[in-house]
Amino acid sequence: LSCSRSYSNRGRKEVRGRRNSQGLQFHTVAPWKSNVLAQWQKRTHPVCTIHVFRNGDLLSPPFPLPLSKSPPLQWDTLLAMLTEKADLRSGAVNKLCRLDGTQVSGGEELVNGDYYVAVGNEEYKKLPYFELLVPQDSVYKMLWY
Predict the structure, then answer these.
(1) Looking at the record, which segments are called Disordered (predicted)?
(2) For the chain, which terminus, N or C, has the lower number of CB atoms within 10 Å?
């Protein structure tokens, strides 16, 4: 058994030909074309990213949580996503708080780029999350933008 495929052209543009009424037409298939759809989808569904600390955990840095702005997520769905990603010792994420401890009650209150704390059944623990866990160079980057 022999294979007729040639693997010598891997990673390069592929030239393909098609015969039509004007003769033989050639076109190239560029590897970047598959990215066009992905970029179009990014533009049509803007993403908001929040950064989330785990309540009482001063050893783990905040994790980013990208959220689609349209369609807006239901609050229960957002809490379920947080539960999966945060992996709190206390179990499920029951509420999301701002760094000052005030509770967020809906997705419309979330601000792109802001920091929040995922809280389970326990009380919110007022700790210096941001000061201890966010590298100072990223603070300067935030101030410039």
Answers:
(1) 1-20
(2) N
Cα–Cα dist 66/96, whole Å: 15
Q: Which of 83, 106, 110 is nearest to 94 (CA)?
A: 83
pLDDT 10s digits, 122-131: 999 999 998 8
When the candidates are 3.30.930.10, 3.40.640.10, 3.10.20.230, 3.40.630.30, the CATH number that belongs to 47-123 is: 3.10.20.230
Instruction: Read off the pTM.
Output: 0.63
Which of 65, 57, 64, 63 has the alpha carbon at shortest distance from 132? Answer: 57
Q: Are 116 and 142 in contact (CB under 8 A)?
A: no
* Per-residue tokens: 100: 């000052």
Distance CA 25, CA 21 (A): 10
Residue type present at position 39 = Q
Query: With contact defined as beta carbons under 8 Å apart, do 28 and 13 qualify?
Result: yes
The residue to which tokens 């009380």 are assigned: 123
